[in-house]
Fold these 3 entries.
Entry 1:
Amino acid sequence: MEEAQLMAVFGFGVGIIVTTIVGWRIASQKAKNVELLSQRDLKTFRLPNNDKRLIKIFTKIDQDERVEFAEDLLKQFQANYSRALRSLESEQEEMDDLMRELNRIQSNVDKKKTKGEKDAMFMARMSPQLTKMKDKLEDISLQLESLSMIAPINTFLKLVVVGHGRVAAKGLYDRGAIIGEPDTKLKQAMQAANKVLSLGESEFEKAIETWIAEY
């Protein structure tokens, strides 16, 4: 009888322990789910919606662990930003070279006396350079887009590094302390590039004719 009572007490105690552990795990999981960045949060922070490292960053309850994790991520994204910036600068230098060459060719075209001579030189010398310029504009547009995607990630991670939690960080964005739109000049540059790239072949030819007439 005593043995049966002991077993019952032991079983009751084990049940309490198991229930406590299960309850703690459920509560812990719920707390982590609350700290997951929602689609609305990601839009607010201007973050990609497929990077689980960023989506789950606030589920790291220990602040020191979260800050250390954010610091490591920030180093990676800052390195990505630096590479993209160097690539953009290289593309811009090549575009400058193309522009100088176009100006030189245009000067020679203008020296021709007849329209036939001008048309012949344009087709032979100017057209290939304009094609290169169109391709280069596409490259520059992509590099600008890359920078505009990485920059807000760096800004967000810097907030996490200094110790802000999800609610505090969101509050900063909601109060307008952080601009939610990309840099105006960056947007204008991308729009200009994409406008050229979106032209059809006949429209592009008309644009070139206008360019020759005006410049």
Entry 2:
Amino acid sequence: MIDTAVMRERLFTMRMSEEEHARLDEVSKHYGLNAAGTIRMLVKREHDGLSDARATKTTKKKPKR
């Protein structure tokens, strides 16, 4: 378990335009999450996609010449 001091160190603040905030609200509402949960979900999704892309890249065979 992470202690409170470490959690505070990991806290960050984002400034968003009205348009960006409206987008975040709409996506959050769609998934039934708050803003923090939505950001966590999207970051995890992107990270998983990167992992998949790396795995695919390493298993591709080089074309024969």
Entry 3:
Amino acid sequence: MMHKYSVTIVFLLSLLCCGLILPIHSALTQSSTISSQGIVTYDDPDNVPFGFILKYSTGFENVVKTSSTHLNMSINNYLDTTGTGSGMWIEGLDRTTPGFAPHSGSRCLGLEVNSTVTETHRSQLDVYIASLITTDQYYVKAYYFLPPDWQMDTSDAAVVAGTYYSIADPFQCFPNFEPQVAIECHPGRIDNHWNGNFDLAVTWRGHLPGQPGTWFPNWAVIPNYPWMELRGRWFPIEWWVKMDSSLTSTPNNDGAMKVWVDGVLVCDKSGVPLLRQSGEYITVGKIYYGSMDLIPKKLWFDDLEIWGQP
């Protein structure tokens, strides 16, 4: 007599063959309706919400610059720079950095800001996702590489001035750039001196009806975050966003956001005014830091994935 467990296994296998049970990774299989360019590792979905589908991906293998401010990513994008010395290149095409390898394939994107910049320091790639996201939620993941010698100005003057470094913006709106959510590195501070450590902060910027000026609350602050341990290797940054349900300038305060850095949840915020205005976009990779800090900086990023609800 066949053992009852063997019967069960045979039955399940027959259902699988008939297509009644989907393979575990079937949701990650790229379909012909998904815009994609280059190599992206679909076997590493990590924190993708249940039921989300892949809307767009690129490993930058087939991407070229069509102008000084645009890439042929098959999704609306814009390179935003400020000051002499800011720029972007396609690693493996426009430039090959000795001793450096992209996260996958042979290409990725590089950003740089040199010490010749005298204004607010900025080099970032903005990707407009409104055409992809037809509901109020999305999830984004990309891989980042900070050079082994990456550093910040930690002099007393810079620390007192509130020097910081932004690496990505999970949410932003055009044309007024608010609200904005940024992932930032800050030197830790004791009185007016650097404490020898760095903090990770997720900050919100915006203004609400009846409020004077612009509001800059910290949604999350992790003291003594090991930013220096991330240097010289690829690490992922992920975020999930639920936009405010209000379609006016008055929020319902029912937005939410989660942010993971190097696989660790660093921000889990709900009941917030992530008001959509027009042209919602994300800043995938970003070098943005305070004017006190004149240390040249580089950043690479690769394997961008944008997921959304069907």
